[in-house]
Amino acid sequence: MKEKIQTIIVKKKMLLIVFIIASIMFAIPSLRYMLQNGTVLHFNEYFKFCLNDDDRVEQAIFYIAILALLTIVYVFIIKNREKLFKNIKEICIYIAIISLIFVMVLPFLSSDIFYYLGVGRLDSKYGQNPYYVTIKDFVENEDNMQYLEQDTVLAKGYENDWGNTTVVYGPVWTLICKIISGITFGNIDVALFVFKLFNMLIHVLNCYVIYKLTGKKIFVLLYGLNPYMFIEGIANVHNDICVVAFILASLYFLLKKKKLIISIVFLALATAIKYFAILLLPFIIIYYFRDKKPWERLKKCILYGIAFLFIMAILYILYIQDIQVLNGIFTQQEKFAKNFYIILMEYFDIPNLVSSVNQVFLISFVITYFFTCLTLLYKKEIKFREEIRKTEYFLIAFLFLLITNFQPWYIMWLFPLMMWQKKETLQLVIQVSLISQFANTVFLINGEGWRNGTPFTFLMLLGMWTCLILEKFLKNMSIKQKKNIAR
Questions:
Q1: Which of 176, 179, 208, 180 shows the shortest CA–CA distance to 192?
Q2: What is the pLDDT of residues 25-44, one digit of tens each?
Q3: Contact 133, 169 (CB under 8 A)
Q4: Crossing angle of the two packed helices 171-182 and 112-124, in degrees rounded to 10
Q5: What pLDDT does 487 receive?
């Protein structure tokens, strides 16, 4: 009997090996590109998987096959987690190994990392304020064109689609970019590798904090081993993974250390990268003072709200000259990509339809959010799980209804609160994250273009509908099996 159990465990361990092999296969096209070219300086064809320079359909098929394999093995690893991992140390080491493989994957679905690095170089090396001076503004000055030859980080940022845009993120991210690009000596290959290592370390740290918050392996694996996280967080090097880190730290100091001011500091750091994080502030403050009377809660909200704004002001002092420093908030919202707003633009020729729909959703969101916070002030018994679920619903609404420039990596915003969600909501977050990566096949085949956002959105909806049908089918099968056993 003991030998049989050991045989089963060995077979289960094969899942871990298969996941590593699939990850290596995912990295092979990028390694091939680097062997042929020796640098990422001319890697400007994002949404290109590097498998075959001429056949986009072939690269898309390869991508889908490997992603499907990773997804299937990911699900089986989750189901067999108790037999595969003894403790959190083993999980974090395994996730670190997979992460290191994805460090080798070029950012084939987004070129944002080159903009990050270019902005950081503009700040660290040339002393320009990136909230007021764009990379192209600086480079196209006759005296500065010479820098393109000797500074490949700046040159790559200059080529980027965002090169003529001032910074659209908060000062914490700009500072991170400044530090990382400043230590890479103007070499784009070194810069990209260092940034990927940075995101990899953040990812593994996030896994550990999730465990400290929950004490459960399943949440660590759902987040840390998700192919979506490896692709968007490490391969494509998006800054949302840092926002996740700061929100997790905020929740850790709130729940485990009972340190409200430190929790607020970390939430301010998250907000000073991407502004949506401020939505958590009232819930955190009111929960901490849940034993106080409503009037006392309100006073604490005002007091700690001022402290939050003060921290934000200190962070902005590094760059602020005037109100133009906040232009990035509006720059993002002026763009349209990958959501139902694209469908409205393409199929309904009605003047101001998109802006009107967006305004209706915005007003509805603000009113609902305001009254939810007001109700929370007067609630007698406040349970964290119940209230954090409401916060997740607001984040979901914000993500899918308010943002006109939706991008797949924004789904990462939903992961810091996943541990307290209902099973259905948790499944939805995981499914949507994975479906978004399959839907990206549209761009692998057709390249970039805002109109490709329409088939992307349809694929997202089709994927979610398929998951619901499949889930219902499996549930019915399970019920029938139980009835047959009972007979």
A1: 180
A2: 999 999 999 999 999 998 87
A3: no
A4: 80
A5: 60
